[in-house]
């Protein structure tokens, strides 16, 4: 375990911690990705524990037939009594025979598959030679050995970037899995702004995978897409730095970054965004009555912590005790970090015991943390918010700003009612 201070460009100190962590693994991302990419299947190569995790996280009923599954590594595979690659080929062949609607298959690595060195990249190449072009087979790692749970989406989207066709036409690319209703709202706004060629990654169907090239400018919808952003830049695309679209101010700044890049008239921009911005402000104001002046502590979990902290401080008047995040991508978060108050404690990584000591010492009004920490803290009289709920719930954009604020207000309202 080591603790050190890292300087940011504006000389803001960052507490860097390496120790015991309490986070979900990257397999969790499959729960929202399989809903987003409607003709894809996610096959985890892992253990029964991996299967139970996915079924629990997704709340899958026994008679449902979702588009994900686990190819379970058995004792025979571990003992070398069976060829794991041959067994995997058999599973995939049965799967594709049973589910002919699948057009994209992701082989998802796990802790067990990586420990026994199953080469899923080579397996995907071998299967592509058999099943392409009807089915495209890709692979990525969802292992939780050195990652946090949102990095599963980052790994998945980064695996798609090499498959994107070359296209140097001028276009805007929205990067990050958003609920369909939120994605549609953004597409309508960009259309009203006059930005005609707008694509999304991931597309809802694998056959609609957008192109990429020197004319591509992209907005990140999620702050945890570091590898995907780097892969897109490697294909010639240009990142548009901006606040992330949380709350009225963040959404306005995010949209404005694209409007400026595509030469939208400032007066036209203001007229288009004004109705949504005002709706968001009114919705946020109702929750500000509960949250203003309350203190909040972010444990590192989802990588959404920095933009959410900015939103809560600037638009709801909350006091930030500490903002912890698993990884601090200073380039993608530059605007967010600049907007945070100068005296807030930032931390990167986790040593859970040390952070729990700081939570108990500060006794904030609200602690944002993972499921494994919430119940013990609640027992100690501290109100908590599950970090994973902020990923599963539609929270981006103007029309979700009030819902996002309410997610933080709800635990405090519940606590006050219980006290009464």
Q: What is the CATH architecture descriptor of the largest domain?
A: 3-Layer(aba) Sandwich
Radius of gyration: 22 Å
Largest sheet: 7 strands, mixed
Say what oligomer this is. Answer: single chain
Strand order of the largest sheet: 1-2-13-12-11-14-15
Beta-sheet strand percentage?
15-25%
Going by CATH, what is the homologous superfamily of the largest domain? Answer: Nitrogenase molybdenum iron protein domain
Fraction of residues in helix: 40-55%
Report how far the terminal alpha carbons are from each other. 43 Å
Number of domain modules: 3
Total count of helical runs of at least 4 residues: 17
By DSSP, the count of extended strands is 15
Supply the CATH class of the largest domain: Alpha Beta
Give the SSE layout.
Layout: E1 2-7, E2 13-18, H1 30-36, E3 40-46, H2 48-58, E4 68-72, H3 75-78, H4 84-98, E5 104-109, H5 111-115, H6 120-131, E6 136-141, H7 151-160, E7 171-175, H8 180-193, E8 198-201, E9 216-220, H9 226-234, E10 238-239, H10 247-261, H11 266-291, E11 295-298, H12 305-316, E12 319-325, H13 334-339, E13 345-350, H14 352-362, E14 366-369, H15 371-379, E15 384-386, H16 389-392, H17 401-419
Please tell me about this protein's structure.
With 420 residues, the protein is α/β, with parallel strands linked by helices. The protein has three domains: 2-22 and 280-419, Nitrogenase molybdenum iron protein domain (Rossmann fold); 26-147, Nitrogenase molybdenum iron protein domain (Rossmann fold), CATH 3.40.50; 171-270, 3-Layer(aba) Sandwich (Rossmann fold). Helix content is 45%, strand content 18%. The chain has 17 helices and 15 strands. The protein has helices spanning 30-36, 48-58, 75-78, 84-98, 111-115, 120-131, 151-160, 180-193, 226-234, 247-261, 266-291, 305-316, 334-339, 352-362, 371-379, 389-392, 401-419, and strands at 2-7, 13-18, 40-46, 68-72, 104-109, 136-141, 171-175, 198-201, 216-220, 238-239, 295-298, 319-325, 345-350, 366-369, 384-386. The strands form three sheets. The chain has a seven-stranded mixed beta sheet with strand order 1-2-13-12-11-14-15, with helices on both faces. It has a four-stranded parallel beta sheet with strand order 4-3-5-6. It has a four-stranded parallel beta sheet with strand order 8-7-9-10, sandwiched between helices. Helix 7 runs parallel beside helix 9 (226-234) and helix 11 runs parallel beside helix 17 (401-419). It is globular, with a radius of gyration of 22 Å. Residues 1-9 have low confidence and may be disordered. One of its GO terms (molecular function) is metal ion binding. It comes from Polymorphobacter multimanifer. InterPro entries: LIPOR_BchN/ChlN (IPR050293), Nase/OxRdtase_comp1 (IPR000510), Protochl_reductN (IPR005970). It catalyses: chlorophyllide a + oxidized 2[4Fe-4S]-[ferredoxin] + 2 ADP + 2 phosphate = protochlorophyllide a + reduced 2[4Fe-4S]-[ferredoxin] + 2 ATP + 2 H2O. This is Light-independent protochlorophyllide reductase subunit N.
């Amino acid at each position: 375990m080591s603790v050190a201070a890292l300087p940011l460009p504006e000389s803001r100190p960052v507490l860097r911690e390496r120790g015991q962590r309490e986070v979900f693994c990257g397999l969790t991302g499959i729960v929202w990705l399989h809903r987003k990419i409607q003709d894809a299947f996610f096959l985890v190569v892992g253990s029964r524990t991996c299967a139970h995790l996915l079924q629990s996280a997704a709340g899958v009923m026994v008679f449902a037939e979702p588009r994900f599954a686990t190819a379970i590594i058995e004792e025979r595979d571990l003992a070398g009594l069976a060829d794991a690659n041959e067994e995997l080929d058999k599973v995939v062949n049965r799967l594709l025979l049973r589910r002919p609607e699948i057009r994209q298959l992701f082989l998802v690595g796990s802790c067990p598959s990586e420990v026994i060195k199953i080469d899923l990249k080579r397996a995907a190449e071998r299967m592509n030679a058999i099943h392409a072009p009807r089915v495209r087979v890709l692979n990525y790692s969802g292992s939780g050995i050195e990652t946090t749970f949102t990095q599963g989406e980052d790994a998945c989207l980064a695996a798609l970037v090499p498959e994107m066709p070359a296209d140097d036409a001028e276009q805007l690319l929205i990067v990050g899995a958003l609920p369909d209703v939120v994605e549609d709202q953004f597409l309508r706004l960009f259309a009203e702004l006059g930005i005609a060629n707008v694509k999304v990654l991931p597309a809802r169907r694998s056959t609609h995978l957008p192109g990429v090239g020197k004319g591509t400018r992209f907005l990140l919808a999620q702050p945890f897409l570091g590898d995907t952003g780097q892969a897109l830049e490697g294909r010639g695309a240009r990142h548009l730095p901006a606040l992330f679209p949380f709350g009225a101010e963040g959404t306005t700044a995010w949209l404005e970054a694209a409007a400026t890049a595509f030469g939208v008239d400032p007066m036209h921009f203001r007229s288009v965004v004004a109705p949504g911005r005002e709706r968001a402000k009114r919705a946020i104001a109702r929750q500000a009555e509960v949250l203003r002046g309350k203190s909040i502590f972010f444990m590192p979990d989802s990588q959404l912590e920095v933009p959410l902290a900015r939103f809560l401080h600037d638009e709801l008047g909350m006091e930030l005790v500490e903002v912890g995040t698993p990884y601090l991508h200073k380039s993608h978060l530059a605007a967010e970090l600049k907007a945070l108050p100068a005296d807030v404690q930032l931390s990167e990584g986790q040593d859970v015991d040390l952070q729990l000591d700081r939570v108990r010492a500060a006794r904030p009004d609200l602690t944002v943390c993972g499921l494994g920490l919430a119940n013990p803290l609640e027992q100690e009289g501290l109100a908590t918010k599950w970090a994973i709920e902020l990923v599963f719930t539609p929270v981006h954009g103007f029309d979700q700003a009030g819902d996002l604020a309410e997610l933080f207000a709800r635990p405090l309202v519940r606590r006050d009612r219980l006290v009464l």
